[in-house]
Amino acid sequence: MPAAVRREPLASVAPSAVAPTALSEADLRRLRASLMARARDLVEQDVALRQRLTTEQAVTANTFVAGTEGACAAAADDQVIALLHHEQDEMREVRQALLRLDEGRYGWCAECGDAIGLQRLAVLPEAALCVSCQGMAEHRAEHRVPRKGEPLKR
């Protein structure tokens, strides 16, 4: 039985040393266009969400309303703020994917170095991990022991 070959993560390999053979130049152009379009959409969503928080009606309602109505207004703001955080995280992932494209590292798993695959990238162009490594990362996150002071996961 042959010994297992350990692959070094792509970060340790010079970007010019490897080119994702699974992705053609046309594929890369389409994926870049998809990432750029997603970035534009995220900017528009960010602006719209911030406007929701700063409308005169929202500011007045949250300042002067007490009781149930005030609680509902605060909950609505919390929801908008959570959406803003999600959009910002997604924008960071899109920018990182564009950077990997520019550096020639796009399409390779950041964890194991294997090709991510065109089908996965077509659905999730900002993906940095192959399906297998993404599954392992999610499993680790689900079973992570909270640090001191962190709330327990329910």
Tell me what the structure shows.
The protein has 154 residues and is an all-alpha fold. It has helices at residues 25-54, 56-64, 67-103, 118-123, 131-142. Helix 1 runs antiparallel to helix 3 (67-103) and helix 2 (56-64) crosses helix 3. The longest helix is centred in the middle third of the chain and has 37 residues, at 67-103. The termini are far apart.
Uncertain residue segments: 1-20
Q: Summarize model confidence as the mean pLDDT.
A: 79
Number of helices: 5
How far apart are the termini? 44 Å
Q: Which shape, going by the Cα principal axes?
A: flat
Percent helix, as a range, is 55-70%
Number of strands: 0
Largest sheet: none
| Estimated structural class | mainly alpha
- Our estimate of the beta-strand percent is under 5%
* Estimated radius of gyration: 21 Å
**Strand and helix order:** HHHHH
